[in-house]
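User: Hi! Is it possible to get a structure for several chains at once, not just one? Here's what I have:
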Amino acid sequence: MGRLRSLLIPGVDKQLLLRDAVKTMPDLARRRFIAGGASFGALTLLTGCDVSDSFSAEEMLKRVSKFNDGVQAWIFNPDALAPTFPESAITKPFPFNAYYELDDAPEVDGKDWKFEVSGLVANKKSWTLEELYKLPQVKQVTRHICVEGWSAIGSWTGTPLRDFLKLVGADTSAKYCWFQCADKEGYNSPLDMRTALHPQTQMTFKFGDEILPRAYGFPMKIRVPTKLGFKNPKYVVSMEVTNDYKGGYWEDQGYNSFSGS
Amino acid sequence: MSSLAASDERTLPATKPTKAVIQPAWVRIMHWINAVAIILMIMSGWQIYNASPLFKFTFSHSITLGDWLGGALLWHFAAMWLLVVNGLVYLTLGFATGRFARKLLPISPAGVIADTRAALTGKLSHDDLSKYNQVQKLLYTGVIIVGVFVVLSGLSIWKPVQLQWLTALFGGYDIARYVHFACMSAIVAFMVVHVALALLVPKSLRAMIIGR
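Assistant: Yes, the chains can be modeled jointly so their relative placement is included. Here is the combined structure:
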């Protein structure tokens, strides 16, 4: 917010502007993106655009990002398989990464935990970990790529999400699977249905042949090797099959929602 | 456009001699669009680099664009269109009009050495700006090739699943990041030399703005 305050906009009461800006924020988490927008705002000042103009660099960038979402979905093959690697290529140690320290990571009790399924599905029963562990599992060794640029190769074992969607009678013509996580701040992320049905998209229960450790999302992670890491939610507690785009923790802050590699 | 200017001179010998167009309009327009695009790409790219640095340094926030990773990515993937569309049209016209062949070739090692020596001793002639010297030919050709590589390596780290064959050509995802960084560094080095020399020979800058 400090950056917003430091902007000099002639004829505009800074306090009022701030109050209005805060009002338009639907979510505290969006603050970061808006603060980022302040420097785009500075650009519009340089070009002489009035702040009341409908044009702003931030608005334009959001529009281009949406355009990019569409273009990417149109030109790329959503069923392309991510490259797989030999076990010898696995990155050790595999990095822990989140917007919090490992000590603050959600601590889920596997006995109490239930995976809730809602929305456009025939069977809305909740699943215990024990029940999920009984489903057929497959292993993949794929590269995890973070939006930050780093990458690491890991070994993930679990049930293909498309098998589970079939099992619960999900309407696979719906647009999204929307995942909620156990994070205190309420991490969530939408996954487009085509990617949810991708053969490598997995409900992951094991990392490196061991029960998924807390660092990597115990008890369940959604592993999507064709998408950037932030679209691979950890500590997942529920899934809603929906036609509505309900946003996501990072998507709302400005990361491109497609974010497919 | 340059051929048009030449025919003007042929057909209108009686009128007062107008100076020939050194840089045709399409080159000038595309040059400045490219300049804006590449600066946006580099400044937002530095901010993206800062999220996960390859080396033991980061770029000062004062010279980056986008404020944080999310903002920088929005800039990078918006300016990308400007850079790539403008670049593709430029390459097409460069080959189709024969400009590349005419202006950039031939380049010889001996010629580059001789012209570098002449430049450093202040003996390089700038009388005819329509003809590039050997150092210019080498640098302009080189930066066009690096420009192609910066885009290809960028695509390979943006889409390492969809374009996995391209990522593999660059030696895999992690190495492709270094290639992308190295191309950026080469372009920045070019820009430093390019801007310094344009300021030393201001009429070349004028030619790139008004054409003559």
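The longest helix of chain A spans residues 57-75. Chain A has two domains: 2-75, 87-253.

User: Great, thank you!
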